[in-house]
Amino acid sequence: TPPPSVAAFQGFVDWAHRRREGGNCVCLAVVPRGLEQAIGLFQVRALEPSFRIAEWGFALGAAFWSTGIFSEAAGLVADFAFKTIGVHRLEARAVVENFRGNRALEKLGAKGEAVLRNSFGRDRSQFLWAIVAEEWRPPVVEGATVFDAAKLKRDIARAIAATPVAPATSGSAAAPFPFFLTDAVSPRPRDED
Q: pLDDT for 79-92, tens place per residue?
């Protein structure tokens, strides 16, 4: 789900800048060859002060799934985390039902270590994955990412045109999207109807 507004995305950008300045988070945009706009992002955040243990998360536009872009970008981000930042253990969490996310982590060489029960809202469990520096092997990417930038631009334009616009609510501000935080404190998960 995209951020609900430009203001919510700006809040996320401001939050990411504060975290980076504090030395405990890096947020990287994914901009494929042939395009000028970001189509996804990766975050790497420290889980303890030395940054030896970190967690990463990612989001990639659906039009770019199954193109090879994720593997290429994830390999670059993991290399950066291990070789430049000095991360020893890189963790990820993915909701159990997120087949694509879990499979992507497995293909990168992450090892499944635990099931975190009810860790993502009511009745939503997650898998805990980890890659340690000594076991990291970048994925083999044959040549440049193969995709047609013009076709992807058309696909994105069609997806935007087909997306229904949510009606404005009068007198109440929409709750911020949980991924795009406006401060360092995560909002409580909302109960789903």
A: 999 999 999 999 99
